[in-house]
Amino acid sequence: KAGVTQTPRYLIKTRGQQVTLSCSPISGHRSVSWYQQTPGQGLQFLFEYFSETQRNKGNFPGRFSGRQFSNSRSEMNVSTLELGDSALYLCASSVGHGGTDTQYFGPGTRLTVL
Amino acid sequence: AQSVSQHNHHVILSEAASLELGCNYSYGGTVNLFWYVQYPGQHLQLLLKYFSGDPLVKGIKGFEAEFIKSKFSFNLRKPSVQWSDTAEYFCRRSGTYKYIFGTGTRLKVLA
User: What residues in B contact A103, CB-CB < 8 Å?
Assistant: First the structure.
């Protein structure tokens, strides 16, 4: 079974621009979660989608948004980029949502904001 | 607010030494606990998880963890580490609406 894939793997943007990241979950998985990983803050939960509906949301500003399509693929959008948005963005998929499902992580998208 | 604390940020051990990495979680709410590992250049992967039942949980690669409710702890252990265990280890808590990771512990095992 193919793992979680994320595209692109690397991105360089400038302040004020917007960016869209993509995640394809493992086949059969209906839940996709997004995380931001930085050296200072560690792994922070952004949001989770299940069956095209946002189920959970972390403590990030509204500039961070996402969506999920009927095939469970998910996109994350960051508008008006700031320098502090430079991070590794990880996507994870699971069969269901909630607290007990194992999440399988992708390789991440490395975003650099100049 | 729910939280997860990993007090050891960096650990250096020699091969064959025993390992214990601390993880403490805050009181309240559903407690589902996980340990993930990130080897250099690789994805995060699950080591083990605990939801209920036997508080001693065995995972992959010889790792185990013990859930101690009275101490709000879920420490990761391995009796004898190998050079290949060099990685970053994350404790994670999940509830109905939140997924919270600890800040991670970087383990370096010297050959």
Answer: 46, 99
Q: Which residues of chain A have pLDDT under 50?
A: none
Distance, CA of A71 to CA of A52 (rounded, Å): 9
Q: Token pair for residue A43? A: 């792994």
Among residues B93, B88, B108, the alpha carbon closest in space to that of A99 is found at: B93
Which among A42, A99, A102 is the nearest to B101, CB-wise?
A: A42
What gap in Å lies between CA B46 and CA A104, rounded to an integer? 8
Instruction: Using a CB–CB cutoff of 8 Å, tell me whether A87 touches chain B.
Output: no
pLDDT computed for residue A40 by the predictor = 82
Determine whether the interchain pair A99/B96 forms a contact, defined as Cβ–Cβ distance below 8 Å: yes
Tell me how crowded residue B81 is: count the other CB atoms within 10 A of its CB: 21
Quick one: pLDDT at residue A98? 67
Cβ contact, residue pair A45, B43, below 8 Å: no
